[in-house]
Amino acid sequence: MTATPMTTPVTTPAPAGAAAPDATGGASRWRRTRGWALGALALGLALGAAIWTTGGGQEYSGPLDPGNPGPEGAQALARVLDDEGVDVSVVRSAAELEETRVARRTTVVVTSTHYLSPGMLERLRDHAAPGRLVLVDPPYPLVQEIDRDQTTMPVSADEVDAACDRPLAGIALEGLSIEVDDATAYVGTGCFPAGGGSVAVADRDADVVLFGAGQALSNDQVLRADNAAVALRLLGNDRRLVWYVPDPTDADADEAVTLESLLPDWIGPALWMVALAGIGLVLWRFRRLGPLSTEPLPVVVRAVETTRSRGRMYRKSRDRAHAAQGLRSATCAALAARLRLDRGADAHTVAEAAARHLGRPVGEIDALLLGDHQPPPATDQELIRLAQGLTRLRREVRRG
């Protein structure tokens, strides 16, 4: 038997310094993605720096909000009260207010009182009964819920002195004055008389204070006159201040503001009267439609008949000059459209373009289209020759 020799594959060693294929592919992929990775890292660092510099805090923009640093906010007053040693607690929901304890030496102030519903007001008065309740700029419906004999009057409070007969709910305001752009006065004995009422009054039980000069608490008007002193005495008379900013969602489901609740009671009967009056007007002015009537249509005249009729009129009047001008104008318009010129191009511009297109002298085509220094056609034969020349020019441009 003859043994078959075994062959061993020979492996050629890789040249020195050559990288493995997978290593080369990984390096190229890293170079491609390196820019995106660095960009994402820079964006993350920028977002983190922005969050860290802002402190993650939330700013509020509502009027007389203790967290609003804008002109209409009351952040300055809240910070001054806190610096003066008053324990200021800001609550922004009815549930949070229910969890906040109100003791004897506690003042509860409510801004954004237009969000208070009757049910919310009743619960608020019960919860704040151990202390003092201050309502800032309460609207008329809310004032009526407190006292049916009470009303509101818009006044201008420019440098109004206190003129208090006695301390307002235990708060001494005598000798001070307020100055705001607009205010509301309430009927009854109180402080800062204006417009037949007083800007600050207390109810019969002296547990609710109505303060109609809310602008005196704002950041941009707190330093006018004695506004700052009035605000500090009104809200800082006790050791603790609960600042309640109502939310529209605090109202009960049956007290939520709807379109029907905003409409007056007489709107329903009034709408019914308008509907009945409209129906009566329709019945009064109603007319029955009669049978359809036919009318003769205008006579339809074909375009070729109109052209022939106009030609006969020109021939009968022997106005060959007018007819020649009409032929030249029609030819210029057709050539301008064919040569892609502006619709308002003059005859000389059309002649130059046609001469370039056909390779003919400009003067020859200019004389045909303009007819300068030439008398108008004197006979029908001359008019026919002009029409034939213009037709020939249009045909040459179309074929060129």
From TrEMBL:
InterPro entries linked: DUF4350
Positions of the UniProt region annotated as Disordered: 1-28
Keywords: Membrane, Transmembrane, Transmembrane helix
Transmembrane feature ranges: 36-55
Residue stretches of biased makeup (Low complexity): 1-27
Signal sequence bounds: none
Domain DUF4350 per the UniProt entry, residue ranges: 67-235
Source organism of the structure: Nocardioides vastitatis
Protein name, per record: DUF4350 domain-containing protein
One Pfam entry name: DUF4350
Keyword Transmembrane helix attached: yes
